[in-house]
Amino acid sequence: MVVPFRFTHYHYLSQFNKFHRRMCRFDPGPVRIAVIGGGPSGLFFAHAVNKILSGEEDNFERRRIEITVFEKSSRPGGQWQSSAEAVDNDVACYDNLWTNGASHSHEFPDYTYDEHFGRPVDVYMRRKDLLEYILGRVTKGNANFFDDHVVTNTEVIKARYIKERCKFEVRTRNVKTGVENNIQYFDKCVWAAGDNGLRYFPQKLVDQVLRGGFSGRIIHSTDMREFEKDVKGKRIVLIGGGLSAEDLALQAVKVGVNHVTIVVRDARGGEVAGTRIWPYDKVNVLRGMTVTGSEGERKIRLSKSSDLPEVDESKGCLYLDDIDTIILCTGYSVNQNMLSMELRRDFGDMEEELLLPDDWKMDHPLDKITGDTEPDAGYYSPRTSPDYYNGVSMTNPNMMFMSYNDFWWPLLAIDVYANILAGVCCGTVKLPTLEDARRQNYEESLRQMRDPMTRYYMDDNYSPFQKFDELTNAAASDGSSSSTAPDAQYHDELWGDLPVEIKAAYEALGYSEDYWCNGGDEPAAGDKGWSGLNAEEQAAATVLGYDQGSWDSSPSDSIYYANILFSMEALDERMKLVKYPLRFIEEGGLQVTFEDIRQCHPFEGGKPPPGLTSAGRIFFLMMANSELHRWGEDDGCIQNKETNPLTYRDYTNGQDFHSMHTGTRARPSLESTWLSL
Question: pTM of this prediction?
Answer without folding.
Answer: 0.85
